[in-house]
Amino acid sequence: MRRERKRSRLLTAMAAALVVVIACGSGGVSAKDDGLTIGVIGDMPYTAQQRAAFPAFIDAMSADPSFQLVIHLGDIKSGSMACTDTYI
């Protein structure tokens, strides 16, 4: 459990760093912009039903003009699944 919390904190920090790099990179967010809207998802898809629906979910987020960036923080397997590189 401790290792998972450490991993989760690391992923959150990496996502935050990515946001800063993107916001400060070429062009950045100008004063006339309304801001940057970031979609953050995680803890999915776990089940077969979620895996089947996931492409449509991503397509819907991609089609939504209010999101400039979507970050998946990881954790695509439930705690009851084996922690291996295999993904079913």
List the helices and strands and how they pair.
Elements: H1 2-24, E1 38-41, H2 48-63, E2 69-72
Describe this structure as you would to a colleague.
- The chain is mainly alpha-helical and 88 residues long.
- The protein has one domain (2-72).
- Helices cover 44% and strands 9% of the residues.
- It has two helices and two strands, in the order H-E-H-E.
- A two-stranded parallel ribbon has the order 1-2.
- Strand 1 (38-41), helix 2 and strand 2 (69-72) form a beta-alpha-beta unit.
- The longest helix is centred in the first third of the chain and has 23 residues, at 2-24.
- It starts with a helix and ends in a 16-residue tail after the last strand.
- The mean pLDDT is 74.
Q: What order do the SSEs take from the amino end to the carboxyl end, as H and E?
A: HEHE
DSSP, total strands:
2
Structure annotation, total helices: 2
* Main pleated-sheet profile: 2 strands, parallel
Strand content: 5-15%
Show unreliable segments.
none
Mean pLDDT: 74
Question: Kindly, what is the distance between the CA atoms of the first and last residues, rounded to a whole number of angstroms?
Answer: 23 Å
Strand order of the largest sheet: 1-2
- Relative helix content: 40-55%
Report the radius of gyration as a whole number of Å: 16 Å
Give the number of domains: 1
Structural class: mainly alpha
From the structure provided, what is the oligomeric state, counting identical versus distinct chains? single chain
Shape: flat
